[in-house]
Write a structure and sequence with these properties.
mainly alpha
Length: 201
């Protein structure tokens, strides 16, 4: 049963990655289904931080959907633009660069999250990979926030997460998931350049 769930999660993950590469809003639907599956896979594998992060992913996917679908409209409303300047609320928000003033706060959030998760795993679980599990989880939290905001730099976060995760899953015997994350790493590199091109267009 666990391997069946892993295979299904891998297939949904491939769909998610393709939709993310295309900057399609439907990536968030796959982004709800995939963590629902991996909650069980990671718990059974003893990857407790990854188990926890997938609960976060469910909420983040809903947030991402709302930001991509209505974010531009909500921002215009908050700024009290005139009705003549309000565009179709269905218009996709643009891909942009992350403002530099976010860099320090995000670094602080990553460091605090990494340290907190590692402390919990070391002291309260039987995890034998607490630091790597904490690293990928903390960086994933940052990556999901950046993706929801449609910042092109989100790909750099996912390159780091995917590369480390691929090795971690090989170690834990999750071969299908390891292969998926190795593919994620490669496509994330191409995704960065794809989004840069789309951003310029």
């Amino acid at each position: 049963m666990e391997q069946t769930l892993e295979i299904i999660g891998t297939l949904v993950g491939l769909l998610y990655l393709w939709l993310e590469y295309k900057a399609s809003i439907y990536l968030w639907i796959a982004g709800i289904i995939m963590p629902a599956i991996y909650i069980f896979v990671y718990y059974n594998a003893g990857l407790y931080a990854d188990f926890g992060i997938n609960i976060y992913y469910l909420g983040a996917a809903i947030y991402g959907w709302m930001m991509w679908k209505y974010g531009a409209f909500l921002r215009r409303t908050i700024l009290k633009k005139t009705a003549a300047n309000i565009e179709n609320p269905q218009q996709k928000p643009p891909i942009t660069r992350m403002p530099l003033h976010y860099l320090l706060p995000l670094t602080a959030v990553f460091a605090a999250t990494f340290a907190g998760i590692a402390w919990i795993l070391i002291n309260f679980t039987d995890s034998n990979v607490p630091l790597l599990d904490s690293f990928t989880t903390a960086l994933s939290i940052i990556g999901m926030w950046m993706l929801a905001r449609k910042y092109v730099e989100q790909w750099w976060a996912w390159i780091g997460v995917d590369a480390v995760s691929a090795g971690l899953y090989v170690y834990k015997g999750l071969d299908f998931t390891a292969a998926l994350y190795a593919l994620y790493t490669i496509i994330a590199i191409f995704g960065y350049f794809k989004w840069k091109k789309m951003m310029k267009e």
